[in-house]
Fold:
Amino acid sequence: MCDSDTRTGDEMDDWEHDMGELVRTRHRALLGYAHLLSGNVRDAEDLVQDALVKVFSRKSAPQPHAAEAYVRRAIYTIYLDLYRRRTRWSRVRGCDFS
Structure:
C-alpha cells in the first residue's frame, strides 16, 4: 500500500490544494532553479516533476509556507543523485576489464 493511500479525504484535498498553489505560483522559479542545475529544459522539467512527486507523495506533506523549500531541496538531491550515477557509469564504461 502506498503512503498516500492512507490519507483521509480532507488531507488529500489539503495537499492537492497546496501543491496546486505551489505549481501555479512558483513553477517558473522552480523550473529556473532546476535549469541552472541541469543545463537544459527537458532535464529541468523532469527534476521539478520528480521533486513534486517525492515531496507530496509522502504521508505527511510539508506545511504550505515550507513547501517550496522542500521541493527545491528535493530538486537538488535528485540532481546530485543523477549526476553521481552518470559519473560512476562513465568511469565504468571507460575501464578496460579484459
Summary: The chain has three helices and no strands. Residues 1-7 have pLDDT under 50 and may be disordered.
